[in-house]
Amino acid sequence: AVGGALLVLRLIARITRKPLFKLRGPKTSSLLAGYEYDLFNQKSAGDKEYKWYQEYGTAFRATGAYGEEVLMTADPKALQYILQTSGESLVRVRRDANGTPTFFKSGDIHQRHRKVLNPAFSAQQLRQFLAIFQESVSHLARKWKEDITQSGSNEKQINIPFWLGRMTLDIIGKTSFDFDFGALDNKDGVPLRLKFQNLFQDSVQPSKANMIHRTLERYAPFIFRMFPSKENIRHRDFMNETRKIARDIYARKDSVVDNDEKNGGKDILSVLARANNAEDSRKKLNDSEVLAQVATMLNAGQETIAFSITYLLYELSRHLEDQTQVFHEIRNLRAQIGQDTVPSSNDYDSMPYFNAVIKEALRLHSILGDVQREALNDDVIPLEFPVTTTAGEIINQIPVRKGQRIHMSLGASNRLNCVWGPDASDWNPSRFLEPGYRRVSGTSVGVINNLCIRIGGGNRACIGWRFALMEMQSILFGLLESFEFVFPTDEYELQRVPLNLMIPAVKGKEFRGPAAPLQVKIRAS
Questions:
Q1: Where in the cell is it found (predicted)?
Q2: CB 396 within 8 A of CB 81
Q3: Does pLDDT of 150 surpass 90?
Q4: Boundaries of domain holding 474
């Protein structure tokens, strides 16, 4: 009863506090479910959000669940301030069983984790990972060629994310844990992928009741333990499978840590295992921290790359002239280094259009659509582009109070006309080859030419961003050298299903899970 009363009081406080009343913003279709219901039920991620930014500017007010006011922004200077300049004053939070905020790793703990992991992402270690990337894509190419040849033709329609997800799981297993899931060969990785597939059945296009139940997690997570939805149960099963795999792998690795010490094992888990056995408490990670890192690597390093490459191949299949130009760069590089020479990271970096199409795919199809933060203290967020208030006043900064929730729209930030030009929503890799392609100078929140993307930046930038980029380069090079990708004659509309990631799916078949069928042709030798 006391907990319920506290929840009611908390909700009343949220509803009656209106710190953003001066900002303009859209009306929500449901006061209880909030704007998130509208975003999760749009046909394709960004459809409504991008229109809001065109109408209200780079920052506006949205009504969240139970009437909570949320600051939404895609402004480059605001993102830079929130992710980088502000330090720890604007942080991501989770809430305990009573709804009390428990902030994600503090600066000291976060830095300790990064320090422990840094050796696993050194330049020397990345060169070792590169060989695994290349062998994995060669394995996939061999399987595709066998499958296509057995069909009696030199081409076949293939569901791209289905196979890329298996390959990236194998890559994560080998590079992170020195473990072979064998997902490409239908071995140990399949149960995890099946549970990931099941997440779609109850997560796509949630009802208002589902959204009301889901958003209560911010205030009273105990409700989820007492009355879990089908979506909660499926997600719990997926996370339990991930943790089970993490425990099995870590137990196997921990039992041979002494041998790893002698052999200098540099896969990521070897680094973590040594850190966990270190005597220096400043470096030591407890078992729960290690398992959390393993689970994070399994989740974060698999589908993000698979889906990013899926969107890239989809765009290249729709723009064959760009695919041809990239293939010419690959062919010219191959002529320079020889057929039997394995490309280096520098070789990949030397191809301008090859890298331009990667950047454009990451810009146009941001895998992580949004990130949320909460203000620890009263603060003022600066804007690159002034916005107009309800009173007609033009402002270039927004004051926020302690506890203010902020929704950063990463996908929208990559499609702002004021930043990328009038063709911001169009596919145009050449923009990255032109000087001054980005209209905002000196405002950066991330890596890869200021793109605020899934492997993007700030104080908590993904430590594996270079790892991810090299993996994408290796996959694209290996696949385009062996195959041509053509959009099917029975055309379909590819949608970005808004879940935790922007999931590629065929319109009208979203509940079947990730899909992007393309006609794959074996290139002539």
A1: Membrane
A2: no
A3: yes
A4: 113-365+457-522
Rounded distance between C-alpha atoms, residue 8 and residue 462, angstroms: 37
440: enclosing H helix or E strand: none
SS3 content of the chain, % helix, strand, coil (to 5): 55, 15, 35
Burial 177-189 (b: 16+ CB within 10 A, else e): bbbebebbeeebb
Question: Which whole-number Å values give the CA distances from 427 to 294, 303, 360, 370, 423, in the listed order?
Answer: 36, 22, 7, 21, 8
CA atoms within 13 A on the CB side of 409: 30
Question: Is 418 part of any known ligand binding site?
Answer: no
Answer yes or no: do 354 and 400 share one domain: no
286 & 403 share domain? no
Could you tell me if 315 and 242 lie in one domain?
A: yes
pTM of the predicted structure, to 2 decimals:
0.87
Query: Is 107 a domain residue?
Result: no
Question: Residue 471 contacts by C-beta under 8 Å, 6 or more apart in sequence?
Answer: 129, 133, 168, 171, 305
CATH number, domain containing residue 160:
1.10.630.10
Residue 335 lies in a domain: yes
Pairing of strands 405-409, 69-73: parallel
The interaxial angle of helices 160-177 and 465-482, nearest 10 deg, is 130
Query: Is 450 a member of any domain?
Result: no
The per-residue pLDDT for range 493-504, each reduced to its tens digit, is 999 988 878 899
Q: Contact, 511 vs 505, CB < 8 A?
A: no
Number of separate domains in the chain: 2
Average pLDDT over residues 423-436: 90
Whether residue 210 is found in the same domain as residue 175: yes
pLDDT at 179 over 70: yes
Answer whether residue 16 is part of any domain. Answer: yes
- Cα–Cα distance measured from residue 173 to residue 179, given in angstroms and rounded to the nearest whole number: 5
